[in-house]
Amino acid sequence: MHIPFKRTTGRTDAADNPCPLRSDAFLRRAMDAWGDTVYRVALAQTGSPSDADDVYQDVFMRLPEHTAAFESDEHLKAWLLRVTINCCHDFARLSWNRRTGGLEQEHVAAARALQQRSTAPTARLRFSSTTEPGYSS
Questions:
Q1: Among 2-11, 97-106, 120-129, whose mean pLDDT is lowest?
Q2: N or C: which terminus of the chain carries fewer CB neighbours within 10 A?
Q3: For the whole model, what pTM was predicted?
Q4: Considering the domain 24-98 in this protein, what is its CATH number?
């Protein structure tokens, strides 16, 4: 059956062409080569280490399922970074993230408050050399 307006891209559906997943060695090589870069981009986009970890995991979970061949290491790097940015945007659009506040912000505010208290001038306590009535020394 001919579908007149079927969009034709260079890709085929997974049901049409079941392709085996990429090897563990390929995944390890990609993580060793570009994992740090993926994490830093995710951290810069999300502003949260825990969110960056989630994005990092999502990106490298998508890599074995991607069926297209990479022409070079630079092509792989470009794909990883594009997927990282897209995952960050998807993550930011989640309704759950709109309703929650990051713990990191609370920790930063608490640390600043604690630092201000520790640097504030302290009142000097007076100690009496005499003992209070009812207490023996």
A1: 2-11
A2: N
A3: 0.57
A4: 1.10.1740
Q: 83-103 burial by CB neighbour count: b if 16+ within 10 A, else e?
A: bbbebbeebeeeeeeeeeeee
b/e code 15-52 from CB counts within 10 Å (16+ = b): eeeeeeeeeeeeeeebbeebeeebbebbbebbebeebb
Is residue 59 scored above 80 in pLDDT?
Answer: yes
Q: pLDDT tens digits, residue range 23-42?
A: 888 899 999 999 999 999 99
Q: How far apart, in Å, are the Cα atoms of 83 and each of 9, 32, 87, 89, 137?
A: 19, 17, 6, 10, 73
Enter the tokens of residue 130.
Answer: 């005499």
The C-alpha atoms of residue 71 and residue 74 are separated, in whole angstroms, by 8
Average pLDDT over residues 37-54: 93
**Which among 30, 78, 80 is positioned nearest to 55, based on CA atoms?**
80
Indicate the domain borders of the chain. Answer: 24-98
